[in-house]
Write a structure and sequence with these properties.
34% of the residues lie in helices and 23% in strands. By secondary structure, it is α/β, with parallel strands linked by helices. It has three domains: 83 residues, Udp-n-acetylmuramoylalanyl-d-glutamate--2,6- Diaminopimelate Ligase, Chain: A, domain 1 (3-Layer(aba) Sandwich), CATH 3.40.1390; 209 residues, Mur-like, catalytic domain (UDP-N-acetylmuramoyl-L-alanine:D-glutamate ligase), CATH 3.40.1190; 132 residues, Protein-Tyrosine Phosphatase, Chain A (Alpha-Beta Complex), CATH 3.90.190.20. Helix 13 links the parallel strand 19 and strand 20. Helix 3 runs parallel beside helix 6, helix 12 runs parallel beside helix 13 and helix 13 crosses helix 14. Its main location: cytoplasm. It is found in: Cytoplasm.
Length: 448
């Protein structure tokens, strides 16, 4: 941890009450398996667990204090109204002590890719980054608490599943650089419509440092709204027209990469962008601007786009046992990301293209219309066959078949894998669906 804290300092930051003698702590944990001498144990609560049940055990193992929402029988503890909020307040103390730039990334699509690509591209720096997708009210504080005096920059991802979550995360991370990739149709169930999603994402801008740099997608319909939230903060934009500060010309999309000419404030550089798809070019532009925002020269930032970012389950190129191209895009799914993946599948140099689709989650009342539209989109893009897993994904299959396409309907992952298991190198297979659809089971069946 970057600095040591006292229980009294933590009590003030959390608007809590210190009960018992003051203690100095050098580590904050939420799991008794990570307890060490001199640490603070924060008793978080979830639907299926309650950290308060382990408070005494944590103290017996070496913790010198507990953050609790109730009276407990230990020597020293900080009593607060909500331990999750308190956890964020403690992380904010560490963030405030950090002198380096903090970059925070949010958006409906692309945030994890941008986070990982940016972190990889800052290879000359000691970077703290969000691990995997630990981007919520537990994961984000946990990441900031890992800051130490060796770190030079923090690259943090912020996600949301309920209204108000981004505002709370922004209050913790207080970014120096905001990257907002886009707002698209995910989490309709929680936010109702695109406007609700855009408002939620925009809270990261409102919660940024007063002199923060805000990086926005100029092609997003909510670009002007987000610019209005910047309130005097410097904004940098990226997009596919010259209305953006950074834009691309001469775009050639290929099966595994793209060639583009990037133009930024009078400079023009031709480059190869590693990774397939127009969305990857957009993510790359966001990375370049984030690098520029933290002091990297534009020409050096562009060079970073040549190095592919490999994220498991994100357009990951594999081979089946019979050498068919297998594109694993199971990490998660929104309507926009499914369309982007279909675009990549459609440009593969093969005889036939196969989409194995699982259900998209958290779409609320728009579940039917969105899956129907995806079936139409797949047919429009010339996908040879759509294999649907489950009743919700089958809605896409019905519209695909209605347009003249060949659709196959399966009840299980095993059935779907069996449909394509004999395909050879003349075929490309894309597997896509929300995390809840567990489409990685199809991948495992095809590569084992």
């Amino acid at each position: 941890m970057l600095i040591k804290l006292t229980l009294s300092e933590i009590a003030r930051a959390c608007e809590g009450e210190l009960i018992g003698p003051d203690q100095e702590i050098d580590t904050v944990v939420t799991d008794t398996r990570q307890v060490s001498a001199g640490c603070l144990f924060v008793a978080l609560k979830g639907e299926r667990f309650d950290g308060h049940d382990y408070a005494i055990s944590a103290m017996d193992s070496g913790a010198v204090g507990v953050v609790s929402d109730r009276d407990i029988d230990v020597i020293s503890y900080v009593k607060v109204s909500d331990t999750t909020l308190a956890y964020g307040c403690i992380a904010r103390l560490i963030r405030n002590a950090f002198a380096g730039p903090v970059v925070c990334i949010t958006g409906s699509n692309g945030k994890t890719t941008v986070k990982d690509w940016l972190s990889q591209s800052l290879s000359g720096k000691n970077v703290l980054k969000t691990h995997a997708n630990l981007n919520n009210q537990i994961g984000l504080p946990q990441t900031l608490l890992e800051l130490d005096d060796q770190h030079e920059i923090a690259v943090i991802e912020a996600g949301t599943s309920v209204p108000g979550e981004i505002e709370r995360l922004a209050n913790i991370v207080s970014p120096d650089v905001v990257v907002l990739t886009n707002a698209s149709g995910s989490h309709f169930e929680g936010f109702g419509n695109l406007e609700g999603i855009a408002r939620e994402k925009g809270c990261l801008i409102s919660g940024a440092e007063p002199d923060a740099i805000v990086i926005l997608n100029s092609d997003d319909p909510f670009f002007d709204y987000w610019c209005g939230l910047a309130h005097g903060r410097q904004t940098l934009s990226f997009g596919f027209t010259n209305a953006a500060d950074l834009y691309v010309d001469d775009v050639v999309l290929s099966a595994e990469s793209s060639t583009v000419t990037l133009k930024y404030r009078g400079e023009s550089i031709s480059a190869v962008v590693a990774g397939a798809g127009k969305h990857t070019v957009a993510n790359g532009m966001a990375v370049v601007l984030a690098m520029v925002a933290v002091g990297v020269r534009f020409s050096s930032a562009v060079k970073a786009l040549m190095s592919p970012i490999l994220v498991s389950g994100r357009l990951e190129r594999l081979r089946t046992k019979n050498e068919a191209l297998l594109i694993n895009d199971c990490y998660n799914a929104s309507p926009t990301s499914v369309e982007a993946a279909i675009d990549v599948l459609a440009i593969q140099p093969v005889e036939k293209t196969w989409l194995i689709l699982g259900a998209l989650g958290e779409l609320g009342e728009q579940e039917g219309s969105i899956h129907q539209a995806l079936g139409i989109y797949a047919k429009k893009k010339g996908i040879s066959c759509l294999v649907c897993v489950g009743p919700v994904a089958s809605i896409a299959g019905i519209s695909f078949r209605s347009g003249g396409g060949h659709a196959i309907f399966c009840d299980t992952h095993e059935e779907a894998a069996a449909v394509v298991c004999t395909l050879d190198k003349r075929h490309a297979i894309l597997v896509k669906g929300s995390r809840s659809a567990k489409m990685e089971n199809v991948i495992e069946a095809l590569i084992k």
